[in-house]
Amino acid sequence: MRGWNKKAMETNLEQAKTSQCDTSVPAEQEKLISLALLAGSYMLKNGGETYRAEECTRRILMAGNADEIEIFAIPTSMIITVKIGGHYHTRSASVKKRDIDIDMIDRVNTVSRSIYEGTMSVNAAFEYLSPEKRKKTSPYMLGIYSSVSSAAFTLLFGGMPRDMIFAFFAAIVTNVSLKFFQKTTGYTFLSALFGSIVMASLSRVACLIVPEISLSSVITGGIIPMVPGLAMTNAVRDTINGDLVSGSSKAIEALLQAVAIAVGVSIVLAI
Q: What pTM, to 2 d.p., does this model score?
């Protein structure tokens, strides 16, 4: 009986050894997999659709002549599995914070197409995606641009020039407050709630000082830049493309942000 158990154990051990996947990956293939994972996670992190992140990742991996490619992406993580030389290799990345950066989305698209067409090396792609190599717009300038849009929306929603001027300065204060608040917490829901409260409060105080100011126009123009329009659009596009999990999660996220903005304004108006 002992002999049979020992023989069976040796047989099972030998089978396990022969079926075990080789975890070693050629250096060039490993760099390509790392690039694909980085590009896909950047796409998710900077406001790209889930299906677009999968397409860009797949396009890069196809340049490595992999036998099989499987990609699973949701707004908070990406997992890729590649079969090379009869062995499967899996890599994953998590996406903790998400923002909107159209320039990075364009760079990821450019890298994926260039790698697939063979017009860019892997090292050049890493350098092209490196944050240090990018000429980023100053956060202060972004705040000014957002404030200008708030002023324009105020005029669009029936405000007068004086309303537009106040909305501009109120939006600057709101943006500065949001930058400080976002450094202490990464919750988008709380940021939207805080921003809407600040904007509505400033508008309410201004109306008490200058009764001629249109409260509704100023508040509406001020909160429009905070409305999660891109998240709503991506939710619809992901759902249409069959990414139901990603589409549903983005729709819920956009809904929560919209509710937070409405709650913040309602709190101020109710006081």
A: 0.79
